[in-house]
Amino acid sequence: MTHHTGREPGSVAPERLDAKRTVRLDPGKPERLDPEKAVRLDAGEAASAVRPADVPVDLDLHCAGRPAWRCTHDGEPFPCPTWRALPLDDSLRAVLLAAFTLFLRPAIRDLRGQPDGPTPPEIVRRFLWFLPVTDEEARAVALRYR
To answer: pLDDT digit string (tens) for 78-124?
Structure first.
């Protein structure tokens, strides 16, 4: 049975980036995330919409690889130093907030309880590095996204 949009219920339009449900391995063909497999999450696509033209990096290369949440390009913990070095303005912060908030739930599920892994509040601060988040706020957000 199809929805009024003509797509199957639960499917996602190809033009919509939704890191909680899809991953772009083949542009134009959304694929369901398999929590048991390492996958590439494309945050670069979300930020490129408002990324300043003078940013000299190809953010499409710097994607999150699950379940370790390491950059698929340089192997650093995601978001990697390339993401963290972006010159931020209010519009880019807004896009990053929307995009990186989508990563919180799967990141917390994948990383919590790992030996020597980050705590859920540390994960929140890691993924929302561009915002001033207190310990108390990070704990509250982590509880919401568990």
So the answer is: 999 999 999 888 888 999 999 999 999 999 999 988 888 899 999 99
Q: Which two tokens stand for residue 30?
A: 């959304």
CA distance 19 to 32: 10
- Between CA 101 and CA 99 the distance in angstroms is 6
pLDDT in tens, 37-70: 444 555 555 545 444 555 556 788 899 999 999 9
Ramachandran category for residue 97: left, alpha or beta (phi over 0 → left; psi -120 to 50 → alpha):
alpha
Q: Which two tokens stand for residue 122?
A: 């540390």
In this structure, are residues 70 and 63 in contact, taking their beta carbons and an 8 Å threshold? no
